[in-house]
Amino acid sequence: MGGNAATALLSEKPAGKLRDPALFLSVVVIWVFLAVFILFPLVKLLILTFEKDGQPSLAALVDILGRRSHYAAFWNSLLLAGLVGAAGTVLGFFFAFTAVRANLSKRWTTFLDLAIILPLISPPFTTAIAMIFSFGPRGLITYELLGLRGFNVYGLHTTLFAETITYFPIAYLTLKAILAGIDPNVEDMAFSLGASRCRVFRSVTLPLTVPGLANSFLLLFAASLADFATPLILAGNSFPVLPTDAYLQITGLFDLKGGAVLSFVLLVPAFVVFVLQRFWVSRKSYVTITGKSGAQTEIKSVSPVMSRLLLAICILLSLLIVYFYVLLFYASIVMALGANHNLTLKHYRVVFTEGLKAIQDTLLIAGIGMLLGGLYGVVVGYLVGKKQFVSRAAMEVASMVNYSLPGTIVGIAYLIAFNSPPLVITGTAAIIIAAYVFRYGATGIRTTVAILQQIDPGIEEASHSLGAGTVATFRRITIPLILPGLFAGLGVVFIRSMTAISATIFLVSIHWTLITVRILEKMTELELGVAAAFSVLVVAIVLAGTSGIGLTLRRFRQPGAPSMSSILGG
Amino acid sequence: MPALRIRLEHISKTFLHRVKGRVRAVDDVVLDVFPGELLTLLGPSGCGKTTTLRMVAGFEKPSQGRIYFGGDDVTDLMVNQRSLGFVFQNYALFPHLSIFENVSYGLRVKKLPGPEISRAVGEVLRLVGLEGYEQQFPNQLSGGEQQRVALARAIVIRPQVLLFDEPLSNLDAKLRVHTRGEIRRLQKNLAITSIYVTHDQEEAMAISDRIAVMNQGRIIQIGTAEELYFRPRTEFVAKFIGKINTLPGRVAETAADGFTLAVLGHPYRLAGPAPSTPAGAELKIYVRPEMVQLTSHLSSAHAQARIVERTFLGEKVEYGLEAGGCSLWATAQTSAQQETFAVQQNVGVRLSAEHLLLLEEESNQ
Question: What ipTM was predicted for this assembly?
Answer without folding.
Answer: 0.79
